[in-house]
Amino acid sequence: MKRLLVVLAILLLPLVVGAQVTKAKAMLTLNFIRYIGWTDEARQGDFVIGVIRDKDLADQIRAQSAGKKFGFQEVVVKEFKNVDEVVDCQVIYCSSAVSFSRSANTILSKVGKGSLIITEQEGATTSGSMINFVVRDEKLKFELCKKNASYAGIQFSSKLEQMTAAINL
What we know:
This protein is of the alpha/beta class and 169 residues long. 41% of the residues lie in helices and 24% in strands. The strands form two sheets. It has a seven-stranded mixed β-sheet with strand order 3-4-2-5-6-7-8, with helices on both faces. Helix 1 packs across helix 2. The longest helix has 31 residues, at 2-32. It is globular.
């Protein structure tokens, strides 16, 4: 019986760790929006966060943003099953289930200027990502690409830049 419990615990551990990582990514994504200099267009209508192919993350962002506003804007979370479904969003989160390097041009054309692109693939900033989650020394971290953000017409605050060095999940 003890062996069964140990084996079961070992099998469930990645699920618990994965859920914590998803929760952290959702929390960080919602915090990122506070430290961005948004364009005037991004401040109109609902504040839309799109998530491509990660239902758990979309659900977590939805739960953490329930009843909250970004300034005067309602926070709306949209889930997309594939890149072709993407519509204009202030934030688009491209999960690791999508090859961002292959889909970058399509995503960039669908969201347009003024949208923050968040990814979770090694090297995604070279394809247009502005914030990229990475694992370094078995810890979740994120990297920023100011050049890509500037091209999109958005700016990172100095506080966000400082967070990249301080984050240790």
